[in-house]
Design a protein that fits this description.
Strand order of the largest sheet: 1-2-4-3-5-6-7-8
Helix content: 40-55%
Radius of gyration: 18 Å
Oligomer: single chain
Structural class: alpha/beta
Length: 305
Amino acid sequence: MSVPQDAPGGRSRTVDVDGPLHLVDYGGSGPPLVLLHGLGGSHLNWMLVALPLSRSFRVIAVDLPGFGLTPPEGRSTDVRRQAQLLRRFIEDEVGEPAYLAGNSMGGLVALLAAERAPELVRGIVLIDPALPPTSMEIPSADTVRFLGLPLLPGIGASLLARRRERRSVADHVAATLDYVTVDASRLPDEVRTAGEAMEAARRRMPWSIRAFVDAGRSIALVLARRRSYLNTVHGIGAPVLLIHGKEDAVVPVESARWLADERPDWEFHVLAGIGHVPQLEAPAAVIELITAWQRRHAAAASSGV
């Protein structure tokens, strides 16, 4: 089983950003839009929306170091380091300020990058971003199994390794999709097929488990520092579109409502009947929300509003 080197309508290539960085370039003649996946994800997380978005943007889906087809190659998978690398990528490879769209971990990376290099970010789309829990949230059993236990110091990596040994590629992908969606049966077959090919490839990458654990722990540390996180949120000057699935089992919608209350100037949409990956579960809605928001932002900018 091989990993598709070209996603539908995109061109796979690798660039040098302190080491190899794999991406899929979907072209397009509009402003650049860089797509950032979540923890354990890859460019494939955007396979249903990237090409349609290229009608309005120049679209690039990246595999952050330690994920997808990008090896760490000595680079840290800590989300703060990922944000620094993203800045380098925009400067050296994109060549102009870009819109950033991030799902889950990718949303956090986008915020951290915008905080550190606001001059390189035109706007941000947050899709079910990683967020601090509210005081009333109780993690689900699936969240403890998928995210909590693997991040335990000393034993997390071995737990993940044993899980891989016990579960087939198909079973792993099925369990993951069931966790992040409301109804995985609604996804096109190509999503599951591509996911299985990527999972099979990652099982041959000796660094993949350590990258997941280290990135996951760094997310937890950033979110635990709630005041610092709020400083980041309130320091964002770029326009932001926040999209969240109402039935997200990973990042509950209550956390998104809290974020929207902190920044009422950000555009906020809740998608009913959708989980953690709206770009896979409701691609048409996500495409429409992003393109309409960008048109409004561009019109306001051109009129000086």
